Each structure stands twice: as C-alpha cells, then as structure tokens.
Amino acid sequence: MVSEIYRMFSERASICQNPIFIIGSPRSGTSILALSLAQHSNLWTSGESYFIFDLFGANRLLSAYKRAYNDPSDNLLKKEDVSFQEFAALIGLGINTIFISRSGGRRWIDHTPHHVLMAETLADMFPGAHFLHILRDSQHTIESMSRFLDHFTTAHKSRLIDGGFLPPWATEFSEACKTWTSYAEAGLQLTRRFPSRCMTIRYEDLAAHPRETFDYIFGFIGVTTEDGPRLFLESHRINSSFGDAVGPDVARPARRSPWSSWSTAQRSTFLELVVPTLTRWGLIPTNPPWTTGRSGSIEELRSLVQQSVPPAALALVISKGDDRLLDVDGVRTWHFPRDEDGSYLGYHPADSTEAIARLEALREAGADHLIIPAASLWWLDYYHDFRTHLDHHYNAVLQHEACVIYSLRDSQGDVRA
Predict the structure, then answer these.
(1) Considering only Cβ atoms within 10 Å of each terminal Cβ, which end of the chain, N or C, has fewer?
(2) Does residue 227 sit in the same domain as residue 308?
(3) DSSP per-residue string spanning 140-156
(4) What Rg value do the Cα atoms of the chain yield, rounded?
C-alpha cells in the first residue's frame, strides 16, 4: 500500500525512487566514497544535509506523528487512516524534490554521517533507498577526530566555536570514542536489520582494493560497472572538512597504530568505551596494539606449554580460531571460547560474565588449564571481572610475556566443585 502510493506520487513528481545514503562515523570516509561514486554517469552528490536530522532526527518525526494521531479531537491522520509509514514516505517526497531539482535527473547520494543515527527513520521516509555504511578502523577514526582542529587557523577555530559548529568529539577524546561507538553500532545494526537495503563497507578495503570494492557496491545498488569512481579514488585525496580538498594521492589507511602516541588515560578510555563494541561485532584485529610489548612465537608458546602443563591435560586456548595455537605435543587443547561442535566460537565474549560462564562450563566438561597467548593477553586488561575470577579461584602456573597459563584448580590443587 505505502510503496504503491509512494510510486504513484514519485512518478508524478519525477522523484528519485532509490536514493543512496552513505552513513558512518565522522572522519570515516563518507565524503570520499560519495565523491567517488558521483563520478558514475548515473549518480550525483553535493554537500551534507544536516537539516534533515534537525527536522526529523532523534525520533522527532515519529513523535510528531503519534502526537497528531492520538489527539482526541477530530484529527486528519486518524480520520483518514494515515499510517506512520505512509506519513513518513510522503514527507520524504518533499525532501526528495530538493535533491532531484539539483541532480539533473541523476540518482542522488547523501553522505551526511549524522544520518546513521536516524537511518531507520530515513528507511521509512525513502522506501526505495539503499544505505552504504562505511566502517573505518576505530583507532584511526578516533585519532582523526581528535586532531580535527589541527587543520584550522585560530580565526577559523573561533568561528566554529562562536557559531556553535564545533562537535564535542573534536575537543574531548572520550567524546570521540563515544561517537565512533554509537555511530558504528547504529550502522552495523542497520545492516543486520535491513540486509537487502544496507551494506557495510570497510574503509580499509576501499583503499586497498578499490576495484573489487566498487564492483561489490555497484552490484548492491544496481548500477553498471564504470571505472570513473575507482580512478577518482585512486587519484584524489579528499578531506571535505579542510581546504586542501584535492591532493596527489588517495588517503590510505595509516600503518602505524595511533595507540603508541596515546596517553595512559586515553588508552584506558578506549578500552572502556570502544573495545566492547569491537568485541560484540567481532572487530578485534589480529594482534591488537594494546598487546604491544608482549611477544612470543608459536614455537616458544608450545615449549612453555609443554613445560607448564602436565601430559594428557586438557587445556583451553584463547586462540581467535588459530588452529596452530592448539598444536602442542602431549597436551590436548580446545579453542576458547568454542561452540557446541568444538570449533572456535567466532567472536569474543560480550563481557566478563559471559567469559566466566563459558570458562566454567568447559571446566565442568573436563578442561583443567587455560592458556592465554601473548596476542590475547589484553583479555586480562579488558575483562576485569574475568581476571579477578581467575586470580581468586585458580593458580597462575606461568606468567610470561609469551603467555599466561592458569591451572583450573583452586589454591589447594583440587578441582572446584
């Protein structure tokens, strides 16, 4: 019903039926992706449109509808049986005319990062829209947000501050962490809820493999393959917030982790505010930088395990699915955490409560040691209550930079009941 009404009005008004919204955290690459895609012969983009959020974001559209619909007086929406979906879609038509009046008939692209926070409302307002959620490495995004003001003159900074245009994430590291987290969560949840309408694109994939990534995007949004977007990306460095919009090369993901330059307080803030989201969505990188200074080869790990774990013991290994870490002569090993079939679970526990529950269930199943390799020693920093549980109930039979090993027995050496 709603789609048919929308189609009828949109055809009559020459509206773009399937616009594209590029969403993501600030400093994540929304602009470079939009400007690149706009090189396609059938696509168009312009500046950001924060006015849409100001008008309809934060559930303002739904609240206005409910207030009007539930008015006990003889109101239009209830009398004419106008659903929220119809209401939102028809209001979206008005916004659509602004874009289409400037796009020359081409399919328009909006790249306002803030719209990730109202994407579900936009999905109702634009029933045929596609969403491209761009996800950039959390550390580099947060670092870019934190350095936002470094690119402006003192006078321009004053204009931003005096005009109320300076976002909190530009001056507070904790706000940058919170912003990345909330935007990433919103985008990932949208992809999960509307898989046919929203896809998540990794910024690093776009930079490292532009041809394959653009082909993937073209297929998703239903346009023919063209080289323009890729060639534009490969020859331009776009930074829409600063004056140096065009440079000699494309922005590539930096290799050096910002972690090394962050203060102890900043690192603690990142672990507290960002790592839970990375953990929940399986985004913890291989050998995360918060394990810096902890090393150890697989051969060294095997040697230490053989020296510290009795033969024929059953040991759990925090492996992140790396089967090589389970290959220890004379010791039976299981992935931790693992699924019912014995394979690596595929993601880290959401919190200490889950980690403890999974540990105790496998201990009851016969596991008597826990091995934490160097690359996973961050668990002991992040899962505070999990570490407290281990230290309170079990003995650490080895503490080494290459690994930590706990015997899953109490201090008296008896398996806990």
Answers:
(1) C
(2) no
(3) HHHHHHHTGGGGS-HHH
(4) 26
CB 125 within 8 A of CB 92: yes
- 214 lies in the same domain as 329: no
- Decide if 297 contacts 400 (C-beta within 8 A): no
Task: Look at the pTM and tell me if it is higher than 0.85.
Answer: no
C-alpha–C-alpha distance, residues 117 and 96, integer Å: 19
| Whole-number Å distance between alpha carbons of 211 and 228 | 11
Q: Which residues contact 318 (CB under 8 A, 6 or more apart)?
A: 336, 370, 371, 372, 373, 376, 379
pLDDT in tens, 77-106: 999 999 999 999 999 999 999 999 999 989
User: How far out from the chain centre does Cα 145 lie?
Assistant: 15
Length of the chain counted residue by residue:
417
By the 8 A CB rule, do 375 and 382 touch? no
Neighbours of 6 (CB within 10 A): 24
Same domain, 72 and 194: yes
* Whether residue 341 sits in one domain with residue 244: no
Total of domains in the chain: 2
* 82, 83, 89, 95 alpha-carbon torsion, rounded to 10°: 60
Establish whether the linkage from the previous residue to 337 is cis, with ω within 30° of 0. Answer: yes
* CB crowding 142-175: b at 16 or more within 10 Å, else e: bbbbbebeeebeeeebeebeeeeebeebbeebeb
Residues 41-86 have pLDDT tens digits of 999 999 999 999 999 999 999 999 999 999 988 889 999 999 999 9
Q: Could you give the angle at the alpha carbon of 55 between the alpha carbons of 52 and 56, nearest 5°?
A: 80
The residues with which 336 forms a beta bridge, in sequence order, are 318
On whether residue 132 sits in a domain, the answer given is yes
Residue 51: which residues within 8 A CB-CB, separation 6 or more?
A: none
Write b or e for each residue in 307-344: b if 16 or more Cβ atoms lie within 10 A of its Cβ, otherwise e.
Answer: ebbeeebbbbbbbbebeebbebeebbbbbbbbeeeeeb
Instruction: Say if residues 214 and 32 touch (Cβ distance below 8 Å).
Output: no
What CATH number does the domain containing 249 carry?
A: 3.40.50.300
Weakest-pLDDT range from 178-187, 230-239, 246-255, 384-393: 246-255
Does 80 lie in the same domain as 188? yes
Considering the domain architecture, whether residues 247 and 301 belong to the same structural domain is answered as no
Longest CA–CA span in the chain (Å) reads 82
